[in-house]
Specification:
Elements: E1 4-8, H1 13-29, E2 32-39, H2 51-75, E3 81-87, H3 90-100, E4 105-109, H4 115-120, H5 124-131, E5 136-139
Parallel strand pairs: 1-2, 1-4, 2-3, 4-5
Helix pairs in contact: 3-5
Amino acid sequence: MYKRILVPVDGSDFARKAQKHAIYIASISGAEIIALSVSENHFVNGISLSEEIEQLNHLLEERCEKDLNEFEEIVGGDIKISSIIREGSPAKSILEVANEENIDLIVMGSSGKSGFDRFILGSVSEKVVNAAKCPVLVVH
């Protein structure tokens, strides 16, 4: 039924729970997992590029790579997995990758690293559920 499953990773407990569900679904369906980590650097937009900003962006990208590597290790070699890093809004990036990669299912956590963002910006999972063109499994 599913051929390509998108799994956003951010190192949060909810994302880790979602990863377990995605691995299970992929193992029984033979689906490929596309892991996505988003470097959310919106807070530096409009600030002139400086060495400090470049260092911060580098640290954010390293964190994305670390989260993806940890997930790839958990998946192991039985399931095909590929990884993508994007910069920008998590919800927008998830929806863009879902369209670009012809995703059949998105499996994501109900909340990410920042619970505060839920109240200020709206929940990433809520935005994805409301706009995705494919099924979305939200794990709590």
